[in-house]
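Record pair follows.
FIRST:
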Amino acid sequence: MVERHVKELYDKYSRNEINRRQFLERLATVVGGVAAAYALLPLLENNSAHAAIVAADDARLVTERVTFAGAQGDIRGYQAWPKDGGKLPGVVVVHENRGLNAHIEDVTRRIALAGYLAIAPDGLSPMGGTPADPERAIEMIKNLRMDETIKDFTAAAAYLKTHPQSTGKVGVVGFCWGGAMANLLAAHSTDIIAAVPYYGKPLQAEGVAKIKAPLLLHYAGQDERINKDIPDFIAALEENKIEYEMYMYEGAEHAFNNDTNPARYNNEAAELAWMRTIEFLDRKLKG
């Protein structure tokens, strides 16, 4: 029961529903004191030093920092692809609300190793780029102009489609805030032909009607904030005859794929969702 209360508190804190002081005060009450709360904190917070699944210097990959023209000026990005891979399909990787961090760069390398030209744009580029402090990144994300931000990520898809290393086929994978963006790109980009939102905010019916790409939807069973809108989303997908696959990972928390977040990471759900993601992308982009 204590573990459940701790997770619920951390979820509220990470969604910025309570500030750090409030979080620590309530955590101390749950775990039996201030000392215990501070001892537990490192296990709950994102640990950027967590060992990457694919090392940044993996010899099998080419990685680089790039910029491309977006609606709000130059957009920075992290790009990866296999050495000697020839022309490859492209995948836009969209970060969580903490911006382009080490975890998302690792995910980008994982996708590249599966045989893709992958790019993770920094959605905070118009505001100077992702800061080192993840809490500041959350605040910055809230102040983005979403109409222009959608155009920036649409430009990322166009960039991959015309890249010399690309076959011209492009998909998108997004997580949390990026999952919502993946849904939006499926509706707004004519270059996206496959979209994989992880626990992303569902589109309203008018947005669903604009979707042009098949969807692979991943949701966490313990994610009431997102899941309350799923029935209407699915009904709109059915009504508009949009191709989709949906999986619900019972017992998993929002952000279950983030292995740098011990409070939420669910290894079983993450591995199964990843297998399904790569299989879906292979069918839609390599077939």
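SECOND:
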Amino acid sequence: MISADTKDALARELPDERHCRDSLLAGLCVYGSIDGHFVTHRNAVARLFWSLLEERKVHAIETRAPTRLQRLPTFAVRLPQRLRAMPPKPVRKCDRLIEVRAAFLACGSLAAGARGYHLEFVVRDEGVAARLTWMLRSNGAAAKEMHRKGRAVLYLKDFDAIAELLTRIGAFAAVLRLEDVRALRETKNRIHRLVNTEAANLQRSAQAGAQQRRVIEFLQSAYGLSRLTPPLREVAELRLRHPDESLAELGRRCNPPIGKPSVSSRLGALTRLADNLRGKQGSAKAAR
């Protein structure tokens, strides 16, 4: 949808200078011609091409019904003979930018899906691909090339490179939409990271709490909590009564309240005491 909207918006904007309009028409012919016709799936792009022609009265827009493979309708305009040859590369920088705009209108697509951002141009042969590669590089965009179903495909995947190129060719609304998509995606990723971190912290806290309970239950049966010092007994009893609470929450329940490091220190002392008792029990069994 973002690709179609971007093309429709660009198709409504005609360059002010005559040489830029000529470059736009020539570029549409270079990148959108098939069998002597300019062909597109966007009605707005077809109307743009038709409006740039001098021979509008004898070159009407032809609407072709969708096929089984191409479910969208196709719009075609027969090329005048003078526009069928490959034009020379534009000299002016603005004309080169206009040709890149024409390439996007004729054979480009833009997507911002789950796999990232993707701007591509599908051209009919290697000669046209080489020309478009030169045009893109002259405007600061280094596109990569691959082949799909026998056709050359030039593409960009870096967000900043895509946004800069779209800005240069005047697709400002598309850049704003991409920025919205990126901001939303980054917010979702940040939330996911926070949720995952919190879940991991809760899991670690639960595992630590369970281990602390086992230690205290061992001390209760093998030593007796009443024999503990008041600070250690207080923390031990609180852990048994509140197995799911964090160390900070246990510390707030103490009288007087203490901090998380103090609670951790007292639980550590209980663990060391339990280890000593287990060691003594093991030695006694070995002596027998």
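COMMENT: The radius of gyration is 35 Å.
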